[in-house]
């Protein structure tokens, strides 16, 4: 195996880990939201939780990819990771709001989007900050 092939494999594993963590963060976000509204949110309701998360997860994956949130060059280190996460989530929130409005037939009140922005950013940014710190430790 060449160095290039090894580097590509490592980048692929890194991206897969980031995507998996992002999916988990968005599922946790949806479960928190459902639970706060008295809806089922446990493992027995995983389909409903996934359905709740889907519009914002899809928005995040699209906008995040466009913002470079999976690019090693744009996410090495804590600062770059958090900045690209913030930029990606701004776009992800907008796309997610549109996708959700299409699904439910209306836009939600502004307060819903403010809470969505803050809570999901905390979850995405928190887990990605941990990822960046572990990655830095391994590189040292």
At a glance:
The chain is mainly alpha-helical.
Note down, in words, how this protein is organized:
This protein has five helices and no strands. It has helices at 3-36, 46-67, 72-75, 78-104, 110-139. Helix 1 (3-36) packs across helix 2 (46-67), helix 1 (3-36) runs antiparallel to helix 5 and helix 2 packs across helix 4 (78-104). The protein is mainly α and 140 residues long. It is elongated, with a radius of gyration of 16 Å. It has one domain. The longest helix has 34 residues, at 3-36. The chain starts with a helix and ends with a helix. Helix content is 84%, strand content 0%.
Give me the secondary-structure topology.
Blueprint lengths: L2 H34 L9 H22 L4 H4 L2 H27 L5 H30 L1
Helix pairs in contact: 1-2, 1-5, 2-4, 4-5
Number of self-contained structural domains: 1
Low-confidence stretches: none
Let me know the number of strands: 0
Main β-sheet: number of strands, strand sense, barrel status? Answer: none
What share of the residues does DSSP label as strand, in percent? under 5%
Q: Helix amount, in percent?
A: over 70%
Tell me the series of helices and strands, N- to C-terminal. HHHHH
Supply Rg.
Answer: 16 Å
Outline: elongated
Give the termini distance in whole angstroms.
25 Å
Please, how many helices?
5
Mean model confidence by pLDDT = 93
Oligomer: single chain
Structural class: mainly alpha
